[in-house]
Amino acid sequence: QVQLVESGGGLVQAGGSLRLSCAATGRTFSLNAMGWFRQAPGKEREFVAAIAGGGVGTYYTDSVKGRFTVSRENAKNTLHLQMNSLKTDDTAVYYCAADSRIMRGSGGYSYHQRRSTYDYWGPGTQVTSQ
Predict the structure, then answer these.
(1) Is the pLDDT of residue 98 over 90?
(2) HSE-up of 18 (CA within 13 Å, CB side)?
(3) Distance between CA atoms of 35 and 50, rounded to whole angstroms?
(4) Residue 120 phi, psi dihedral angles, 5° rounding
């Protein structure tokens, strides 16, 4: 059974940093796209960042470019999101997601930012910046 579990969320002052991690169990995802989404109260879940299968590319929504960095640690089957210069608008529940298909980096931004691309989701971790 595949499970994704996020960690690293918390309360931070605006301008501060947090590092989220997502540990995957049940199968390896080194060749699969993985991503981060977030959902603020009263809003739809939105794309934040993704990394292509094999780590051949990374994708970010405009509002986090230059502040957030997505990376993967294949030996530990773990996805990370380093978040710097946090703003109050970054407050949300952050979700990790993984694609069951092996696309080997193809698809581009359009593919990696779609919620429907991802088959597995974690329960989420709260990030509050104030």
Answers:
(1) yes
(2) 21
(3) 4
(4) -120, 140
State the pLDDT at residue 56: 81
Euclidean distance between CA atoms 80 and 96, whole angstroms? 9
Structure tokens at 109: 């931004």
Averaged pLDDT for residues 18-24: 98
Q: What is the DSSP letter of 54?
A: G
The position carrying tokens 């501060």 is 16
pLDDT of residue 124 exceeding 90, the answer is yes
Q: E strands, 3-124, where?
A: 3-7, 10-12, 18-25, 34-39, 46-51, 58-60, 68-73, 78-83, 92-98, 120-121
Note the pLDDT of residue 54. Answer: 80
